[in-house]
Amino acid sequence: MGSLVSLFLLFLTTITTSDGISVFPFHRSFSSLSSKFVETKIHPLPISNLPPPPRFAYVISGSAGDANMLKRTLQALYHPNNQYVVHLDRESSTQERLDLSNFVKHHPVFLRFGNVRMISKANLVTYRGPTMVANTLHAAAILLREGGDWDWFINLSASDYPLVTQDDLLHTFSYLPRDLNFIDHTSDIGWKEFQRAKPIIIDPGLYMTKKADVFWITQRRSVPTAFKLFTGSAWMALSRPFIDYTIWGWDNIPRTVLMYYANFISSPEGYFHTVICNSPQFLNTTKVPHEDPVLDKIDSELLSRGPGMFTPGGWCIGSRENGTDPCSAIGNTTVLRPGPGAKRLQSLISSLLSNENFQPRQCK
Q: Signal peptide: which range, if any (predicted)?
């Protein structure tokens, strides 16, 4: 099954979160949010006053045998105004990576909009080690440099699959401040203090050309006092300002924390969480089996997506007759056609941003 913390019920996943705050938003400025916010910003506005839709930047990563699933997830998530980076790690075969590269380079829709990129030089990724964090930062840097304007960065595995359309997602996020971050986090690390924070691991993926599992050294270390540890899900939606800060690290916190997590088991479950909750300017901003039949049911009943097709949205103006892909004819890419999924998202966001949930439980 997939690995995303049910971000707004967006993705099918089996992850079980810690006892922390699940998918809790941060916000950089408390003053801009009042009890009035949820009531006025979430409900639909008159058509003439609709805010501009946001743009998402996705990284979708996979390993050996994931190419076909990655293609399917990419098509299910696709919208012409978003940006995408796809990556198959070095465990995948050369042929598998070549097939994915050809799919990205030669698909007529991707060619037209130029918004899908593949990391051609595959990274070696150890999924319990810091190389997974390095791969995520690599994709984020590419999107900052080449991806134009976008508002949120979302990291996914090839096994994650959406439960709402991009039109539903874009419509709902249109009403949100663009500096919100959605990340499952808690400072109550519990058993992880003894089993993850104090042990020291080495990830051979940092310096070897062939994959090997992480290994432990006999010496242990104390829990940090220079910064506070946070943990949570490795899957999140992060604002562009925070991603920019993580890459540039102008006050050095992101680099310091990254060097610490280089010897931390399962570092993807703590790196971004610890950075965001130890950075004053962001402190208060705050997998499915391949070809599983449930994916076909999601495509049919939730996404209205045919096999090998994109998830239709307002940008798709073609006919569905005789099994034709409606997205083969492209209209205005700024038009959104939200469906029932948008109502589910609005209800959940209203709960997340309520007085009871928003401010009192950030970085606790």
A: 1-20
Ranges of the chain whose pLDDT falls below 50: 1-9, 12-48, 287-289
Residue 203 has which token pair?
Answer: 């990830």
What distance in Å separates the CA atoms of residue 272 and residue 229, rounded to the nearest whole number?
Answer: 10
Closest CA to 76 of 53, 58, 95, 100: 58
The count of C-alpha atoms lying within 13 angstroms of the C-alpha of 323, restricted to the half-sphere facing its C-beta, is 3
Dist CA 98 CA 313 (whole Å): 29
Tell me the three-class secondary structure of the chain, residue by residue.
Answer: CCCCCCHHHCEECCCCCCCCEEEEEECCCHHHCCHHHHHHHCCCCCHHHCCCCCCEEEEEEECCCCHHHHHHHHHHHCCCCCEEEEEECCCCCHHHHHHHHHHHHHCHHHHHHCCEEECCCCCCCCCCCCHHHHHHHHHHHHHHHHCCCCCEEEEEECCCEECCCHHHHHHHHCCCCCCCEEEEEECCCCCHHHHHHCEEEECHHHCCCCCCCCEEEEEECCCCCCCCCCECCCCCEEEHHHHHHHHHCCCCHHHHHHHHHCCCCCHHHCHHHHHHHCCCCCCCCCCCCCCCHHHHHHHHHHHCCCCCCCCCCCCECCCCHHHCCHHHCECCCCCCCCCHHHHHHHHHHHHHCCCCCCCCCCCC
Handedness of CA 299, 305, 309, 314 (dihedral sign): negative
d(CA 88, CA 120): 9
pLDDT at res. 285: 62
Q: What is the pLDDT of residue 193?
A: 84
Tokens representing residue 218 in the block = 């006999």
Say which residues have a Cβ less than 8 Å from residue 332's Cβ, sequence separation at least 6.
Answer: 314, 315
Distance CA 345, CA 324 (A): 29
d(Cα 297, Cα 308) in Å, to the nearest integer?
A: 14
Q: Indicate whether this model's pTM tops 0.90.
A: no
Domain boundaries along the sequence of the chain = 7-189+230-352
